[in-house]
Amino acid sequence: xxxxxxxxxxxxxxxxxxxxxxxxxxxxxxxxxxxxxxxxxxxxxxxxxxxxxxxxxxxxxxxxxxxxxxxxxxxxxxxxxxxxxxxxxxxxxxxxxxxxxxxxxxxxxxxxxxxxxxxxxxxxxxxxxxxxxxxxxxxxxxxxxxxxxxxxxxxxxxxxxxxxxxxxxxxxxxxxxxxxxxxxxxxxxxxxxxxxxxxxxxxxxxxxxxxxxxxxxxxxxxxxxxxxxxxxxxxxxxxxxxxxxxxxxxxxxxxxxxxxxxxxxxxxxxxxxxxxxxxxxxxxxxxxxxxxxxxxxxxxxxxxxxxxxxxxxxxxxxxxxxxxxxxxxxxxxxxxxxxxxxxxxxxxxxxxxxxxxxxxxxxxxxxxxxxxxxxxxxxxxxxxxxxxxxxxxxxxxxxxxxxxxxxxxxxxxxxxxxxxxxxxxxxxxxxxxxxxxxxxxxxxxxxxxxxxxxxxxxxxxxxxxxxxxxxxxxxxxxxxxxxxxxxxxxxxxxxxxxxxxxxxxxxxxxxxxxxxxxxxxxxxxxxxxxxxxxxxxxx
Length: 539
Fold this sequence. Notes:
The protein is α+β, with helices and mostly antiparallel strands. It has helices at about 5-15, 80-95, 110-120, 135-140, 150-155, 155-160, 165, 195-200, 215-225, 225-230, 255-260, 280-295, 305-315, 330-340, 360, 375-385, 390-395, 430-435, 445-450, 455-465, 480-500, 505-535; strands at about 65-75, 95-105, 125-130, 170, 175, 180, 190-195, 250-255, 265, 275, 320-325, 345-350, 355, 365-370, 405-410, 415, 465. It has a domain at about 5-185 and about 360-395: D-Maltodextrin-Binding Protein, domain 2, CATH 3.40.190.10.
C-alpha cells in the first residue's frame, strides 16, 4: 500500500487513469488450465476480464511521484537519463509519475540490487526471474509485494492481456508476485549457424535435427581449424552446460521453477509429477556422453569463457554457430543484429515437442519491490510498459532520430541512424523481452517483418505442449541450507560434468553421492511433497 495515500483515497483519486489513453496490449496465446494434469496444446480461453466499472478521475489530481526501475542492460546506456526524461513526458501525462531508469551491468546486477534492497533504497520496479535477481529468493526474503489486487485495479488492460493460467507462473503459495512479460514461452533448443559456413561446406541444415546430427558438420569445421582459426561453437558462460537441457529430452526443468540450477526435473507429460535428480534419469547419461564427445573432439575451446568473450569472439568470426536455448521465430535476425553475420536458425526437437512450463514463463518478469512507496503508481507504470507502444519503444530502443530511425515505418522496421552502430550507440539495452510485452516492439530487420515474427511466436506458444507441472512454484524456506550446499556441489562437480570436461563413468556416481551428502534427499523429499500438495490443489 502507498505510504502517502490509503487504498481507498488512492482509488478515489486515481481510478483507472493509467489505462484511459493507452494502446491495447497484444493478446498472446496461452496454455490450458493449470489444473490439467496431463499436457495438452495451449487453449484459446478468454483472458482475465478487466474491471467493467472504475473511477476515472483525471491524472492531474494525483500527486507527482518518481518511479525508479532497476534492470539489466546488455549494451551501452550512457543516455539512460535522456531516455527516462522522454519517457516521463508520457508517464507524467498518463499517471503523474516521473521515470528514473537504473540500468545495471550483468556482472554486478544481483549483488548490487540485493545490497540496495537491504539498505532500503527507493526501488519501485525491478527485473526478477529464475536466473537473475532470483524471483523465488526475493519472494522468500520478502523483497516483492503481492500483485493480486494491484494489477486488476491499476493495470487492467495488462492484466486482461495475460491468461489466468500463465499468471500462475508468477505465483508462490497462490499469491502473485511476478509481473509476466509476454514473449517466447515455448522452450526449444537449437543452433544459429552462420549462413556463409553452411554454404562453404554445402551442408543440408534440414539434416541437423539433434546433437548427434551436428557431429559430422562440426568435424568438417574442426578439420579446417588450422587454416581458418574457427571453432564450431563456443561457451556462453563459465557455467554453461552443453547438451543436458531438460526440455530437449522431454523434461520440465524444475530447476527453473525452483529457482535453482537444473538438479531436478520431471517428464513434461507425467501426470504423477514424479520428480528426480537429473543425474538419475536415463536421458541424462545419453546427454553427458554427447557432451563428452563434443568436448574431447574439440568442438569448442577447452576452457569455458565469459559471455562477453563469447560475443567478442562471435563478432570476430571465431565461431561457426551460436548455441541457443530459445530457437524462436526471428532469432536469426536478432543474432545478425548482435553479431554481424547472416544466420540460419536450426531448432531441434527430436525427443519432445516445444514445452511451456513455469520456468519458461518465469524466465522474464518484473516485480514491485517492498521498498516501493507508491505501489499503485508502479502498477500503473506496468500497465503502460505493456500497453503503450510509444513508452515501450522508448525504454527498449531509445529516442527516435538519436538512437534509432525508421527504415520502413509502414512495416514497423527500425535501424540505427547513419554513423551509429550497436557498439557506438549511447542507448541500446538490447533486452526488449525484459521490459514488457515484446510483441509491441518494432522489428529490427526487414526479415523479421516479412516473417511476421511476433504472430509466429504467438502461434508457437499456442501450439506448444504444456507441462503437467505448469504453475508449480517451489517454496525454498524449508531447505535453504540444502539448496546452498547442493549449489556448491553442482558448481564443483555438476557443471564440469554437463560440459563434458570430466569422465562421466567416474563422475556421475560421484555427483549423485555428493548431491545426497549435501542434503539432496531432504531437498527432493520436500520438493516432491510440495508437488503432491500442489497437484491436490489443482483438482
